[in-house]
Design goal:
The protein is mainly α. It folds into 2 domains: 373 residues, no CATH class; 76 residues, no CATH class. The chain is 72% helix and 6% strand. It is built from 15 helices and 6 strands. It has a two-stranded antiparallel sheet with strand order 1-2. A hairpin with a 4-residue loop joins strand 3 and strand 4. Helix 7 runs antiparallel to helix 11. The longest helix has 40 residues. The radius of gyration is 24 Å and the shape is globular. The N and C termini lie far apart (56 Å).
């Protein structure tokens, strides 16, 4: 097989797996901080139990996320050494700041939070979890600084065929970053919120620990509703930004081969034929693409064929059209998942405001359980659209993917490591799922039961719990 394609598959698979844990850590840390804030403000012990219970899931998730994240760093030197050599002076700086500042901030205060219960004052302990939450946001910021440079390179100069940073401020005020960061963060908050809401809904449906899970649900569903709406709004801004900075990606996301008429219709579904550069059928909504692109019901959108000609004139001969089917359908999967999240969030918030959560129909609680998967689907499909739609570039307009791979790493080595990593990740996924289910099944009163057994080592059957 082609080593470039194998390296791309490996990076995509490891990144997708890692990105399961990153947004969930960000979202759970924020929700736990809110819950502990409620405990400190109200003095209600239920909120303390909530912070501890959901904190267990956060710690499991965070640990696996750290393990999978380390591998991401190694791949730049292993499979993508030419890319690292070309862009390392720019790309390495935000990654270094993320590791030295954000990760150590998270790790330090996670330790204090874990072991600080009943040892630190309430307010100091609360500060620890808020600093953990802020640390996750800072970490995401620096990672997205690096990614935004790949989407829209700024703040650099070419020296001896390599990109070298000459303007750090331009790097952290990149227009791509300003639209990508909030879109990603609110997606992460939605991820944590729907997990808490989905588990809480299931427990309420089973009539288990009603007061505990009702309070968890009320907090989570409001965060889910607000964050889902903001994800859509910032996603809309990001799409409009890409119309100017990466028009080929947006044309591919619409399977728009020819420049549209004015006003431009939005294609709901299409039969895409990349070989003949046409669509065999289309279902369109008039005017909508112009509105999505320019916030007005007028304006044409440039098609892929015209952009291909422009890029050939600017960059030289080559195929500058990304995989259209993948870009087109991943965008629509993201939109559908996000739309369902908004609807469920709005209905759940309405139930909370009307104080009818316990009386919600089973269909809604079952839908909430399913909704746990929706942010992961949206996050993954959105990432696929963002990265696949940038092809054939690793750094847009500067450096192509085919030139980025390590020259001395053969297809066999990459295939072996791909199989090995996939196997390890499958085992990690199974262990993580097992631990999540185990914690959720035990419920929020597991610690009290353990303390009771420790105080009374003989159960009602006269069997020592110690033995």
């Amino acid at each position: 097989m082609d080593p470039v394609m194998l390296a791309r598959i490996q990076f995509a698979s490891t990144t997708i797996f890692h990105f399961i844990f990153v947004p969930l850590s960000i979202g759970l840390a924020f929700l736990i901080a809110i819950m502990e804030t409620m405990y400190v403000v109200k003095g209600n012990e239920t909120y303390k139990k909530m912070a501890k219970f959901w904190g267990k899931l956060f710690l499991i998730n965070f640990a696996v996320g750290v393990v999978t994240g380390i591998l991401q760093e190694f791949q730049f030197g292993m499979n993508w050494s030419e890319y690292s050599r070309f862009v390392g002076d720019v790309f390495g700086a935000p990654l270094a700041v993320e590791a030295l500042l954000a990760f150590f901030l998270e790790s330090t205060f996670i330790g204090l939070w874990i072991f600080g219960w009943d040892r630190l004052s309430k307010k100091v302990h609360l500060l620890c979890i808020w600093l953990v939450s802020i640390g996750t946001l800072i970490s995401a910021f620096w990672i997205l600084v690096a990614n935004s440079f790949m989407q829209r390179p700024v703040g650099f100069e070419m020296v001896n065929g390599r990109a070298e940073m000459n303007d750090f401020w331009a790097l952290i005020t990149n227009g791509q970053l300003l639209v990508e960061f909030p879109h990603t963060i609110f997606g992460a908050l939605a991820t944590g919120a729907f997990l808490v809401a989905g588990v809480s809904g299931y427990k309420l449906m089973k009539k288990l620990d009603i007061d505990f899970f009702k309070k968890s649900f009320n907090i989570a569903i409001v965060v889910a509703m607000i964050s889902s709406i903001l994800v859509a709004l910032f996603g809309h801004q990001q799409a409009q930004y890409l119309v100017d900075t990466q028009p080929m990606k947006m044309a591919a996301a619409e399977s728009l081969w020819e420049t549209s008429e004015d006003p431009a219709p939005w294609t709901v579904i299409a039969g895409i034929d990349p070989d003949n550069q046409t669509n065999t059928f289309e279902l369109k909504i008039p005017y909508l693409l112009s509105f999505l692109s320019y916030s007005k019901f007028s304006g044409e959108v440039v098609g892929m064929k015209e952009l291909q000609a422009q890029y050939e004139e600017q960059y030289g001969p080559g195929d500058y059209i990304p995989p259209v089917r993948t870009t087109f359908w991943s965008f629509r999967i993201m939109v559908v998942a996000g739309s369902i999240m908004i609807l469920l969030g709005l209905y759940g918030t309405w139930l909370t405001m009307r104080k009818k959560v316990e009386n919600a129909g089973k269909w809604f609680m079952k839908a909430l359980l399913f909704s746990i998967s929706l942010p992961f689907i949206a996050n993954t499909s959105g990432w696929i659209m963002t990265e696949i739609g940038r092809q054939p570039w690793t750094v847009f307009g500067l450096y192509q993917t085919q030139d980025s791979i390590s020259p001395n790493v053969g297809a066999g080595s990459i295939l072996f490591s791909l199989i090995a990593f996939s196997t390890i990740y499958a085992v990690l996924a199974a262990i993580t799922a097992y631990l999540f289910v185990k914690v959720i099944k035990k419920g929020p009163n597991a610690e009290e039961k353990e303390d009771h057994l420790a105080a009374d080592p003989f159960n009602k059957e006269g069997i020592s719990s110690v033995s």
